[in-house]
Specification:
The complex is a heterodimer of chains A (about 260) and B (about 260). In chain A, about 25% of the residues lie in helices and about 25% in strands. Chain A is built from 7 helices and 11 strands. In chain A, strands 5-6-7-3-9-10 form a 6-stranded mixed sheet, sandwiched between helices. In chain A, a hairpin with a 2-residue loop joins strand 1 and strand 2. In chain A, helix 3 packs across helix 4. In chain B, helix 2 packs antiparallel against helix 9. Chain B is an all-alpha fold and about 260 residues long. Classes of the chains: A alpha/beta (about 260), B mainly alpha (about 260). Chains A and B meet through loops of A and helix 6, helix 7 and helix 10 of B.
């Protein structure tokens, strides 16, 4: 992967709060049209890495380059809306971009156009995720950053939401960085899974990562089924039981850490 | 109508109008304690103004601003919960103000007027100060309305979308400090927060958008001030506290209305 054309290129990223090391020597490259999924146990630094990419936090070591003029669409993990604030879905979206035609188009795209005049306080988990996705898409970003986009959504809804994200990537050719809430469910359209535990344990195509020793050590052999992959009709060529190849050395930064 | 009544109504309604939208942000952002702390510290500002022989309103504004900045710094570097910190500062400042006024303001300061307001004693000079404050707050609030609302809904999302979060929050505090300085004249140090919070809360169930809630809060606050002045004129009650009672009655009435869909 050439980093010249990368949307975001992070090299040897480190982040520490006081004596507490959150991230260490993390490399991450986000390209247009590619979906990168972050997985890792709680406290692995997934959200911290996302915050670095978003520019909400500055790395304490390493370098992070964003393509000049990069527009990021961000879908946060949660929305704590004070009940005293009256807000309809449309008004919420107008905060990001005051363009009613674009708002209607993106609400239709995410399948919640019927909620345009509903109160933000009365949305179900799945509806809220779709409204947040519509807001992330509203400014026509070249990079989508989605922090646990399917949380609070039932399994059938999760599959539909992943399908929608894959379709958006196909149509707009934007880069996607996603944090997965579920270690074992990573969408099929993912190009690269980065398995994070302070450092990058292993990374690669979902099929390969699930067989990587570092992955197995981190998530246990109970995960022998590996990463259950949502396939969809665009992806018949995926080889679910294909070659069991470990990540090649250039992709793997596995060190002698013990993961417990 | 007597001049003092006209001045009282003009001053009270202007301050209530400004307090409407700012009070909404105080409610949405849970800054009631913050407003209290600013208001209580204003008394220290009064005392410092007397000691240093500068304009008292100016002294209050400057001191409130200083305190607001100190609060921001403390909140970022403290292991104490924010409300504990505010409680400590708020009451320490109130006590300091009371002691300083007793030491240096004896005979020069009507403490009761500062604590509970003296609307019927408003002078044309006070009206001029309020007008100057309004001339800052109204355009300022319009200019930062959307970014401020956006960061109130989700601070980090707003920041990713390009909102200058720190600057916008500082501007909100500046406006709050300005308002507190003039609201003291109307309802006094002890009741400034009431003028911010109660009309905004009363307006919640009548509104379907943030803007409706802000305008509703202004209208309810202005009505309450008129009620307070009327009560003061007819029954000789203190105007500021009477206005707060009117606002609280409006809040009670608003509860009869179901939450809008």
């Amino acid at each position: 992967m050439s980093t010249d054309t990368a949307l975001v290129a992070g090299r040897q990223l480190s982040l520490a709060f006081g004596n507490r090391q959150i991230l260490q020597d993390v490399d991450i490259t986000l390209m247009a049209g590619q979906i990168v999924t972050l997985i890792g146990p709680n406290g692995a630094g997934k959200t911290s890495l996302v915050r670095l990419v978003l520019g909400l936090e500055q790395p304490t070591g390493g370098s992070l380059r964003r393509r000049p003029g990069l527009r990021i669409g961000y879908m946060p993990q949660k929305l704590h809306l004070d009940p005293s604030l009256p807000l309809t879905v449309t008004r919420f979206l107008r905060l990001a971009h005051n363009d009613r035609a674009a708002i209607a188009a993106n609400l239709a795209l995410t399948g919640v156009d019927h909620l345009a005049n509903s109160s933000m306080h009365h949305l179900s988990g799945g509806e809220l995720q779709r409204v947040l996705l519509a807001r992330a898409l509203l400014r026509n970003p070249s990079l989508l950053v989605l922090d646990e986009p399917v949380q609070g959504v039932d399994v059938a809804g999760q599959a539909r939401l992943y399908q929608l994200i894959a379709d958006i990537r196909d149509q707009r050719q934007c880069g996607v960085l996603m944090v997965s809430h579920d270690l074992h469910l990573v969408m099929a359209a993912t190009d690269t899974v980065i398995c994070l535990n302070q450092h990058v344990c292993c990374q690669g195509h979902p099929d390969n990562v699930s067989e990587h020793p570092a992955y197995l050590e981190l998530f246990g052999h109970s995960a022998t089924a590996g990463i259950a992959v949502y396939t969809h009709h665009h992806d018949h060529d995926h080889d679910m039981h294909g070659d069991v190849t470990n990540c090649d050395a250039s992709h793997c930064q596995h060190k002698d850490h013990h993961h417990g | 109508m007597a001049d003092f009544l006209i001045y009282a109504l003009l001053a009270g309604c202007s301050v209530a109008m400004l307090a409407g939208p700012l009070g909404c942000f105080a409610v949405w952002r849970r800054m009631a304690y913050f407003g209290d702390t600013l208001a209580h510290s204003a008394l220290t500002g009064v005392a410092l103004g007397l000691i240093l022989s500068v304009n008292v309103s100016l002294a209050i504004v400057l001191f409130s601003l200083l305190l607001a900045l100190a609060l921001v710094a403390l909140q970022h570097n403290s292991s104490l919960a924010s409300d504990t910190l505010l409680g400590i500062l708020s009451h320490a400042m109130l006590a300091t103000g009371l002691v300083l006024v007793a030491l240096f303001g004896r005979g020069r300061v009507d403490l009761y007027a500062y604590l509970f307001g003296d609307l019927l004693a408003v002078t044309p000079a006070d009206l001029f100060t309020i007008a100057a404050v309004a001339a800052v707050i109204i355009p300022g609030l319009i200019a930062i309305w959307r970014p401020l609302l956006s960061l109130t809904v989700h601070e980090e999302l707003a920041q990713v979308e390009g909102v200058a979060v720190v600057r916008t929050k500082l501007l909100l505090m500046l406006m709050m400090a300005l308002l507190v300085a003039v609201a003291m004249k109307v309802v006094g140090v002890m009741l400034v927060t009431a003028l911010l919070i109660i009309p905004a809360a009363a307006s919640r169930r009548l509104a379907r958008s943030p803007e409706q809630m802000a305008i509703g809060a202004s209208l309810i606050g202005m009505t309450a001030v008129i009620g307070g002045v009327a009560s003061s004129f007819v029954w000789d009650t203190p105007a500021g506290p009477s206005a707060v009672i009117c606002a609280a009655l409006a809040f009670g009435l608003s509860l009869l209305r179901p939450m809008p869909a």
